[in-house]
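Researcher: Please predict.
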Amino acid sequence: MTGAMLLAGLLMGLPLAGQQPAPPASAALPPDPAVWWAPEIPKPPPEQDPFQGRRLRPGETLVPIDNGVDPLLYRLWGLHPLQSQLIKRGELVLEVWARPATGVRQAVVRVTVRRDGRAFVQARAGLGCCTPEIGRRVDIDAELATQQIAPLKALLENPMWSQPSSVIVDYGGGAVEPVCLEGVSWDVTLLVPGQARHLRRACDDAEVGSIAPALAAALSVASGRDARFDAMFARGGDFSRQQQAYDSLIASGGRLKPGTSSRPQPPAVPLPGEDEPPQDAAPTPQGQ
């Protein structure tokens, strides 16, 4: 056999060699059941769990929450249920739900201010329809800059928290229950030590304007962090139009009246004695 014939035979055999079936991969071993149900669960960062898994101590009571959001729904959105948040003196949680009247897009923003001076925003957006999970969910978990905290604390003194939980707008000629055909309806909850307040507002500008400070505060700190989230809110945290509509309503003699679905706010719970010093902050090195 000549060298040329030998080379030709080798070249013809190469494609056949490439077509040989690969050896079967060894089957993966099933996980150890004991390990499966007892994993090492890492502690989430404070951006994802601002209160770092606090537990009730003797004498402490969780604040009743009545905002219409089931605890399991919070978990679908990747949030700890607001009903289980143990809040201490000097802290607050502001939560805003946005539900457009058309479509199935929804969003929630939760802002937490801790007693150690740190604050965090957790924002979610997604499709609340058609699949068991929240479709196309967008998650934002971030710590706020120091200058963003003061406007949040100032909300505690705002008179809007004394309004009825749901309202109808009386422009002076009688009031009609709102029907939200377009725009966005809002749910706002403020959680402070010992009590919570929930306000629900439909799409009417004056109605939404009555809670504009809370909406602006929450949306402002959530905006600019993810373009997909920002796409839901063309004006970001700007609620000046709604605020002006509410101011004009009051100036013209109109008012907000309790709606037929308005419910009393949950009762306050007694506060325990003075807490121990904050444990959330990092310890200060000795000698500094």
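Model: The longest helix spans residues 3-18.
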